[in-house]
Amino acid sequence: MSTKNKFFSVGRRHWEWRIKPSEKGQWARLRMPFSKRHLLQWRGVHNPKNLNRERVLIDKKPLWWTIGLLLLALITPFLSNSLISVVSIFCMYAAINVLWTLIVGTAGIFSLATLAVVGISGYGAAAANVYLGVPWPFMLIIGPMVGFVFGAILAAPSTRLDGLYYALLTMGIAEICRVFVSQLRGLTQTGGAITQVDSFIPEDWFLQRPGLLLGFAGAFLILLGALLVWRLVNSERLGLLLRVAKTSREDEAFAEAVGIDFRRARLFVFVLSSAALGVIGAFYAMYYKSISPSVFSLDQVMLLFAMMVIGGLGRAEGAVVGAAIVVLIDKGLIELGPLRIILVAVIMLIVTMVTHEGLTGAREQFRAFRKRKSGERRARRTIKGGEVMPEEATEIHDKQEIYYRRFNKRLRDHLKTLITPDLIKEHQEAPQGKHSDQLSRVLNFFRRGEMPDKYVIMRLKEGEDDYRVMAVSGVKGTPPRVVDDKIYTNLNEAYHAVFLLRVNDLLES
Amino acid sequence: MDLGLVIYALNLASIYALMAIGISILWSSVGMINMAHGATFAVSGYGAWIITGVMKPIIIASFGKTALATFIMASTLVGSALITGAICGALIYVLAFLPIHDKPNYPIRGLIITLAINIASVQSLLYIFGPRSRGLPKIFGFGRWEIWGTKIRFDQAGTIIGAIIILSLTLGWLKYSRRGLEVRAMMQNAEGAAYSGISRKVTALPVLMLTGALAGMSAALLSQTIFVSPTSGSVPLIMGLTIALLGGLGSVPGAVIGAILIGFLEAFIGSIPFLGQRYVMFSTFAFIIAVLIIRPRGIGGLLDDTRE
Questions:
Q1: Do B120 and A349 touch (CB under 8 A)?
Q2: Rounded mean pLDDT of A215-243?
Q3: Can you give the residue ranges of every domain in chain B?
Q4: Could B278 and A342 be called an inter-chain contact, meaning their C-beta atoms sit closer than 8 Å?
Q5: pLDDT digits (tens, 9 = 90+) for A387-397
Q6: What mean pLDDT is reported for chain A?
Q7: Of the residues A40, A59, A78, which one is the last residue of a structural domain?
Q8: HSE (CB half, 13 Å, CA atoms) of A257?
Q9: For the whole model, what pTM was predicted?
Q10: Is the ipTM of this complex over 0.85?
Q11: Substitution target from A101, A159, A162, A168 for chain B, most B beta carbons within 10 A
């Protein structure tokens, strides 16, 4: 009898990286300066095997963020000129996306006017610089001021209209902005663009390597700033309030009932991100030294939306990952022509069809899927085999029972292989008497069967050869039940019928 | 306001109504915002262009230049546009509805998938046919009528009449057929319809094909006035969406009223000398925003709470 031992993994916890803290530094944690906030979320645990103290990092995202951003900052200076500008554009788009995610995910306002805010504040700052002669550092103050005012105007109807109505309204506002800017009398020669904006990049460095590096440094700082705004909003009280009223209408009602003014919080986040978008707008105008009405175009909005969707709507890491993918395709593979937009659309299609929450949510989705499947498998094993599953084993006090069931399972598995048409024929010819080795093993197993539902033969009338097959109940006082209506006129026939029933039960178990 | 302006306004209104009603019905019954409606519009325009291009020599060879030939030409054009639109609708059903209709985040994911379909098909059209616009055969001819001193071009009259016929057919189907009853039940209350044994999965296919055919019809009608180009779907899509909103979600009369209002508004603004054609979009959006702020559910829409 050779059944291969198969072991199943027990429990649902996945393996985690653990470190051993030093004796003294048991409770030492890195903290933000001037606050009690921890930088990394460590949890102290005991190893159940040797009872040593260990530490587990609960949230590993900060590590990934640090590694990714450091790599970006270190590798970019060694790239070619065109790639540096691609990376700078990536930083700018990623920053816009992070702030957009703040509006869509944290505040839950489905606005499509994000680029309109960027554009309007960029225009405001550029106009102040070109027509009023304001020096460039002040553009970074004028931009957010314009963004703040425009954001406040945009935010006003958001409490009254819900969801998609508001999305379409903001789309309309973006269109109005585009038409308005391109119709301005003073800008008709340039097609609505403001050119020759003063910049933090000196005039003779523009589009040269030092200028590109300076531009990248600025864009990288902008991205860091956007991530800081994201982090501050989400980790402070404001984010907490908004998370209460996040998912459904019932949650909103609950938040209102416990006294959270979630509408005000949403408006606040909206206006705050609009001001931050204003900084990006001013930076945008300075980076290109000009700004044109194409900022407001629907295609551009769609491209940014595609970035967020591919990465995962409502997650900061999704906004950045999506921006990386789409910018790489859109700006890095320019020789593909219109095919690259098709490629972006196809990626967007597949990602949305397959994943529930974009690429960054794929890992959790896969884990949930795997957990569900393993649960299904476990259930199937339990039903089929009758062997004790590891989870069940901890619940059974009498360990003898577990071994008996395992033995029984293996025995049955082996006996199933013995049953052949020849064996059945042998039994049919001589139910009693000397049997072959295989048949006697099978019959021995049947003889040892448990009392409940054991088959027995009943003689219908005394002295006559009429038999029926019954199954005893196994409970005292409860009569046996009739298995079928068939009446056998020969005892051997009845023996064989019982044999067949038992073989059937064995093969089904 | 003279009669010519009214005719122009009705012409615009009929195209907008065809688009808006498609979006509105789909939105309220299946719960999907079809951003690929514009792509359906452009693709069915191109489908009609290809098929009429193939059929034109055959028809001329067999019928000559008779009235019958013109009639067959017209029915080929409209039929091919309708069928292409319906096929697009079926394609959207397969890609954007079937895989995700019972999964989490269905409304937003449906919107995203249809948006991706829209981008992909517009770019594919650009890639295959190039940005040049194509003229379809003029099925209503080039003449014009004189009524009370104003000239009405044949294509305008044909568009208005064709739109009215198609709309009445659609509304009749919705009102009198069994499938239409199911669609209306889903529009009123999706959950209640499901309890009464109306399958969303089964009903969504005819709805998507119907709305696709409506987009194809509007493409065929608009091709009589302007040319067909890969990006020609974007303006009808945006106008259709905003008019569906203005009319109210799931309200067919609301969408018709909205389309007529916007048609007249556009014609009127376009005729004012100092504003001119450039501010048409601007004023339309301003009007729609004003209406939505005063009445957030649109002209004829139900409140969301009522629908649930």
A1: yes
A2: 91
A3: 3-232
A4: no
A5: 777 767 777 78
A6: 86
A7: A59
A8: 6
A9: 0.77
A10: no
A11: A168
